[in-house]
Amino acid sequence: MKSLCVYCGSSIGGDAFYAQAARELAREMVNDNIALVYGGGKVGLMGVIADEILRLGGEATGVIPKALMDKEVGHVGLTRLHIVKDMHERKAMMADLSDGFIAMPGGIGTLEELFEIFTWSQLGLHDKPIGLLNANGFYDGLIAFLKHVVDQGFLKESQASLLMHASHPDALVQLFKSFHPQRHDKLLDPESARTIV
């Protein structure tokens, strides 16, 4: 595993624990020589994890739409910064550059990115690991809701299990390092996947 895409908030959040979790995840990634791929911002948890990766000597690649770069939220001190035309191109490039995906605490944008990449896995468009960094129990409600979705027959247990989760960065990174793609019923074949992701 050479790189991980981290989805996280453009806000710092209401608890200092979240920024600390971002710094801890950065340390785990640098210790394992895993590069960061993220949304390219300098604000919120995005800025915290990127700054910590760089401070520790790791690599950080950002992908940001031109409209957001123009509003001066782009991080100009990264190892690499790709400026793209829109959010669709941003997400596709982030997926292409990454060997796995972690969602840290964040808002609607973080959830949208998470669920898109989760859906792509369910469809068979990729077989890369996806996980929640459930810092301070942030994702407890989402984890419970997904169990409810399974219980109500809208999601198979084998598909729900594609989304791993752990409370601490070291445990989550270990899950990613030991990840092996599971066989489950996917709606598309691998040849289709190569043309989309």
Automatic annotation (TrEMBL):
SUPFAM superfamilies according to UniProt: MCP/YpsA-like (SSF102405)
Alphabetized InterPro entries for the sequence: LOG (IPR005269), LOG_fam (IPR031100)
Keyword Hydrolase part of the UniProt annotation: yes
One GO-annotated biological process of the protein: cytokinin biosynthetic process
GO MF, any single term: AMP nucleosidase activity
A Pfam family hit: Lysine_decarbox
Reaction catalysed by this enzyme: AMP + H2O = D-ribose 5-phosphate + adenine
E.C. numbers: 3.2.2.n1
GO cellular component: cytosol
PANTHER family, A to Z: LOG FAMILY PROTEIN YJL055W
UniProt protein name: Cytokinin riboside 5'-monophosphate phosphoribohydrolase
Organism: Noviherbaspirillum cavernae
